[in-house]
Request: fold
Amino acid sequence: MYNVKTYNAISQAGLDRLTNNYQVNKTDDADAYLIRSVDLHEAEFPKNLKVIARAGAGFNNIPLDRVTKAGIAAFNTPGSNANAVKELVIAMLVASARHMFAVANFSAKNIHADISLMKKTDDRFKGTELLNKRLAVIGLGHVGSLVANAANDLGMKVTGFDPFLSSDAAWNISNQIERAASMKAAIQDADFVTVHVPKTKETTGLIGAEELKQMKDGVHLLNYSRLGIVDNQAAVDALDAKKVASYITDFGDKVLYNREDVVVTPHIGGSTEEAEANGSIRGANIIMKYLETGNVKNALNLPDLNVPFNTPYRLTLIHENIPNMVGQIATKLADNDLNIEGMSNAAKDKTAYTIIDLDQEPYEDLVNELTQINAVIRVRIIKNQK
Ligand SMILES: NC(=O)c1ccc[n+]([C@@H]2O[C@H](COP(=O)([O-])OP(=O)(O)OC[C@H]3O[C@@H](n4cnc5c(N)ncnc54)[C@H](O)[C@@H]3O)[C@@H](O)[C@H]2O)c1
Ligand SMILES: O=C(O)[C@H](O)COP(=O)(O)O
Reply:
């Protein structure tokens, strides 16, 4: 029986996919965590924990270095909520161009007045159209590419900036989207700027005072990525200077409160029934695949390694990516008369992963003995359930 512990609101749709070999939230000593945005940076991890699946895209809540050193595989599910974010961002583009929040505030405060009369005396709610306006999309991954394509479908001129764009992601982007060679080239002519990058050391403050200065007067700015990717104090200064017309973000920050030109939504970009179900189902499938086969696809901290599991037993080893690891492991097995049916190895950055298929049950102390090899981080024996 495997134990799964959940954090945050995890859609039942994914938990329903777990087979009878799984129980949920029965113990803290879990084999797997299924999480959303819970901040794990200060968390202690149980000894048994083998895998963390983040139902959603952003993984800045997972201390990847520490998790990897503990031999825990970490995965996210990028794309599972991308459509939800796209729809909200498009709504916010329209809302900012048509002053929808000011209109909503006005009508809420004037419930006894005939609001239709106000149009005759006051044109403060006259808006602009998105058609032919320019949108800069910073980050063209799962979310950014959908936003760029949808804005293009609405007749906007769209410029994308993503120096690290994968070739897979590039296939998803309409050939109408112009690719900028620099941040400045992307933002300098834009009427709207929207940011869709992961939160890292490099992207913290990606949109700061300098970038805001490079933008057109009256630009509308959106941040549905993470707190800190836009420097909020710099954004407030630019709003005060009327450089930026409006700022819409999914992440609260006290410098933003009580302003008519700012709208803060409570981190709901990915909060739809469909997106939460997608993330939870993908997270549950990731957990089952990793625990039952050791196979890895698109982990955050391990290389891809997918080997058909056709033997009765399998050993998996997470170890440092240094010379002679595979040799030492194979020697240890040979010294103990264990025949290797198949062996595969791959590396990602400083971490390597080895899968060894065995036609017989390994002796009990093998895990300890292999773990004692210098630079071996974690060893698992998996019994084939098929
Ligand atoms: N508000 C929400 O609820 C919500 C929902 C989903 C995602 N997000 C956030 O949005 C981020 C993006 O999500 P995604 O699913 O598109 O992720 P993704 O990994 O598919 O795409 C991120 C893209 O950003 C690009 N990038 C990285 N650094 C960059 C830089 N300095 N300049 C320009 N581009 C850069 C990458 O090359 C990649 O193409 C997530 O990491 C998460 O923090 C928020
Ligand atoms: O990165 C994400 O996927 C989103 O920010 C959603 O976060 P949540 O799962 O906490 O809603």
